[in-house]
Write a structure and sequence with these properties.
alpha/beta, 7 helices, binds NADP nicotinamide-adenine-dinucleotide phosphate, single chain, 42% helix
Length: 238
């Protein structure tokens, strides 16, 4: 039987890259897409396998159908691209920032899933990566949480509407990836140590913690319409 094909948009870094690594080890054929050629090439070298790479800015609605068609048909789509915009206290967060968060995450996820439909195998799957902010009452995350909750809301609707295609989501907690590079090393280490203290398992996550959840949702053909909150228990509160 030929290997199943997975396309990971946002596969050149962090959670998407760890997912590519894990799925390659499991025998899937993997294509990764992102906006930066150099990042894609570094990822390809790190993965050390016959990974295909495609340049795609998923915020560019007109480019998506064309780029996805050039990839050809595939079995599974993983949407691992995101945004760090829209965080901050509700009283002061700027509407433009919140809007940008939706433009950089919700609409690209929506548009990529839509454009992938003619290319996806009917028994295949879509996995959206949302975030714990969609589910937890964490002060300072109203804007971020709304964009991620909008993605989580797609999961059950699409799983019902697009059957037998399976549609699932993973909502990560705090994961040590380049997503946090808007902070200095010193700030990052203080933030991670604070989150580790608030997280029942006593640490922040590694990208492969989330890759394991994604791989499970892709491989288990009885899973659809579910969002796994993989956050070390952060959303349980203190
Ligand atoms: N890290 C966390 O703590 C955390 C927590 C909760 C949720 N998440 C979510 O998990 C997902 C993965 O995040 P991560 O931590 O792995 O981030 P990351 O390390 O910054 O990786 C993001 C990936 O997405 C690509 N990307 C970004 N914008 C894109 C666009 N418009 N079109 C195509 N590719 C794009 C990036 O490559 P280019 O920049 O080259 O395009 C990169 O490959 C995101 O949705 C994020 O919101 C992360």
């Amino acid at each position: 039987m030929s290997a199943q094909q997975v396309v990971i948009i946002g596969g050149s870094s962090g959670i998407g890259l760890a997912t590519a690594q894990r799925l390659l080890e499991q025998g899937f054929e993997v294509t990764i897409a992102g906006r930066t050629q150099a990042r894609l090439e570094t990822a390809k070298t790190a993965l050390g396998h016959a990974v295909r790479t495609f340049l795609l800015d998923a915020a560019d609605g007109t480019a998506i159908p064309q780029v996805l068609s050039s990839i050809g048909s595939f079995n599974h789509l993983v949407l691992a691209l995101g945004s760090s915009k829209g965080g901050g206290a509700f009283a002061t967060v700027g509407l433009d920032d919140v809007r940008q968060g939706f433009e950089e995450k919700f609409f690209p996820h929506f548009a990529c899933a839509q454009a992938a439909l003619p290319l996806l195998a009917p028994q295949g799957s879509i996995t959206f990566i949302a975030a714990v902010t969609a589910h937890a009452a964490m002060p300072g995350t109203a804007g971020l949480g709304a964009a991620n909750a909008a993605i989580a809301a797609l999961v059950r609707v699409l799983a019902s509407e697009l059957r037998p295609l399976r549609v699932n989501g993973v909502s990560p907690g705090v994961i040590d990836t380049p997503w946090w590079d808007f902070l200095s090393d010193e700030q990052k280490s203080a933030v991670f140590s604070d989150y580790a203290g608030k997280t029942p398992v006593g640490r922040v996550g590694a990208p492969d913690d989330i890759a394991q959840a994604i791989s499970f949702l892709i491989s288990n053909t009885f899973m659809t319409g579910q969002t796994i909150i993989c956050d070390g228990g952060l959303s349980l509160g203190s």
